Structure formats: C-alpha cells, structure tokens
Amino acid sequence: MQEIHLMFFSAITLLAVLNPFGNLTQFLAMSEGLSLEFRKKLFRTILYTAFIIVLVFLFSGSLFMNYIFRVTLDDLRVSGGLVLIIMSLKNLLFSTRNATKDFSHYQEMDEKELLRQSLIPMAFPMLVGPGTLATIVVLSEDGGLEIALGAVIIAFIFMGILFHFAAMIERIVGKLILHVFSRIALVFIVAIGVKIMVTGLKGIFNL
Q1: ω before 130 within 30° of 0 (cis)?
Q2: 23 and 127 in contact (C-beta within 8 Å)?
Q3: Within 10 A of 34 (CB to CB), how many other CB atoms are there?
C-alpha cells in the first residue's frame, strides 16, 4: 500500500509538472479546424513520443548524471527546481501573451507536416521539457525506479484519457476553464520547484 501511495503521489507531482491542461489548450488551438479523427491521431502521436522520451530519460538519467556530467542528485535538485520556478513564473507573468498566441500557421500545414510538428515542438519541449526530465530523475533517485516507472505510467494513462476526450472536454468546460486550470497548476509547479530546490540546497550545505 505504501508503494502504491508513493506511485500516486509521484504521478500527481509529475502531472503538475507536465501541466496537461495548459498544453491541451495550445494543442487544441494548433489543431483547430481539423477532423476529430486526425486530432486524436495527432494527440496520440504527441503522447507516444513524450512517453518514449520520459522512459529513455528515466532509465538513462542516472547514467548521465553520475558518469557523463558528474553532478550529484542535490546539484540536479537545485538546477531542476530552478528551471521549474523560472518557467512557471514566466508562464504566469505572461499568461495573457500565451493565451492570445497565434497558432493559425499550424492550420495551414498538411497532415504529414503536423505529424512532424507533433514530435518537435509539441512533444518536446512543450509537453516534456527540461524541468520534467529533471523531475523524473529526482523521483527515480528518491523513490526508486519502480515507483518512478509506476508514476510515469499512471500520469500518461490520465493524459491519454484527457487527450482522447479533448474535443468533448473543450465543448463542456470551454477554453477559459482549461486556461484557469493550467494557471492553477503553474502555482503548484512553482511550489514543487521551490521544494526540490530547498531539498537540494540542504543536501549541498548539510543543513
């Protein structure tokens, strides 16, 4: 039961960092005017790509950290927490600019080009960014690989359901409510970033 609790807690942390509601509003704007079936195909491609990126980094992140870049977990906590804080504050302070961002050029692309765009920038770095990758390594080092893997699977199952019913959710709650949810999530991302950073600083200075 304790492991399941840790998995769900880690999944909630990961979902907060991924901010699916905020990204969903942008993906909907990018794919506006497309058929429902192609939208679902596009969103599946984004999720599959993001899932593979997260898994690759989950299994190789410790290797990069310890043997290539030679940084400690506390170093990563500080840098990853700082990235989460900066990115979240940027999105919060410039939320109006993000909400009114013009995605019309995506609607002029053909299906093949849109599918290519689903890899970069939609899957990376929009959905999965540097903050997410740092969080994955921290979760793995703190709770263990099995806990982190379970959290990743739970988080992406939730996002799969959310993205599958994206058009219906948009009709029911509207873009404004999704935008509000994304702003609320950003506040929690800042808090998560602060917590990770403080933990790293305590470890570095043995506080």
Answers
A1: no
A2: yes
A3: 17
Residue 87: what residue type?
M
Rounded Cα distance, 147 and 144, in Å: 6
pLDDT per position as a tens digit, 139-159: 999 999 999 999 999 999 999
Mean pLDDT, residues 176-194? 89
Q: Is the pLDDT of residue 96 over 70?
A: no
Q: For residue 145, what are the contacts with CB-CB under 8 A and spacing of at least 6? A: 58, 59
Is 158:97 a contact under the CB 8 Å cutoff?
Answer: no
Amino acid at residue number 174: G
| Residue positions counted in the chain | 207
**Rounded distance between C-alpha atoms, residue 7 and residue 155, angstroms:** 10
| DSSP single-letter state for residue 31 | T
